[in-house]
Amino acid sequence: MKTSQAYYDAKTKSYWYMPLGKHEGELIPRLLFTHPHYINWCLHNMTEGVGVKAVGSIKYFIGLFDRRPARIRCQGRPGCRERARYLAVKPAVKLAHPKYVCSRCVPEVKGYGLIETYGEALEFVEKYCRGSIVEFSKVIKYLSQGKGWRDKGKTTDMKVIRFFGLNGNHNR
Ligand SMILES: [Zn+2]
């Protein structure tokens, strides 16, 4: 990937590809899946120059991610047929056994942390999992699976673009 490639989308005022840093030239929405720990690092540390624009672009794609509705059914009360709204995980250093619940079934997951957005997921790992790289990936996997992401095979640019519902006419 070269920096000379066009990867700025004027319409959304965002970079599709990282304009700097160790993942320069990589598709930002893909990094949301493959390197959430790095995304978190960017959000906290890219505060100058083109880094600010990179963070703006990351936030744009996080917004798209958050707007993707949950696809999974609630696992709160037996027989609840609602669509899940929250990812529920027990606060622990190592995350495990996620559940997905609708608003009404929140009382069924007492003691769990409720996560609705990408940002909340990152904060959760910072708070309970000591910012572990593995747990960042895990929580984002849980969250995206609730939105219909299939975690099989390689996370290709095309797969990510389809998940986000982005059209393919971006120029690279
Ligand atoms: Zn429910």
Set out the fold topology.
Elements: E1 8-9, E2 14-15, H1 28-34, H2 36-45, H3 50-67, E3 86-89, E4 99-101, E5 113-115, H4 118-128, H5 133-146, H6 157-164
Antiparallel strand pairs: 1-2, 3-4, 3-5
Residues 74, 76-77, 80, 82, 101-102, 104-105 line the site of zinc ion.
Textual characterization of the structure:
The termini are close together. By secondary structure, this protein is mainly alpha-helical. It has helices at residues 28-34, 36-45, 50-67, 118-128, 133-146, 157-164; strands at residues 8-9, 14-15, 86-89, 99-101, 113-115. The chain has 2 domains: 8-68 and 152-164, no CATH class; 86-146, no CATH class. Helix 2 (36-45) packs across helix 3 and helix 4 (118-128) runs antiparallel to helix 5 (133-146). The strands form 2 sheets. The chain has a 3-stranded antiparallel β-sheet. A two-stranded antiparallel sheet has the order 1-2. A hairpin with a 4-residue loop joins strand 1 (8-9) and strand 2 (14-15). The radius of gyration is 17 Å and the shape is globular. 33% of the residues are buried. Helix content is 40%, strand content 8%. Bound molecules: zinc ion. Zinc ion (ZN) is lined by residues 74, 76-77, 80, 82, 101-102, 104-105.
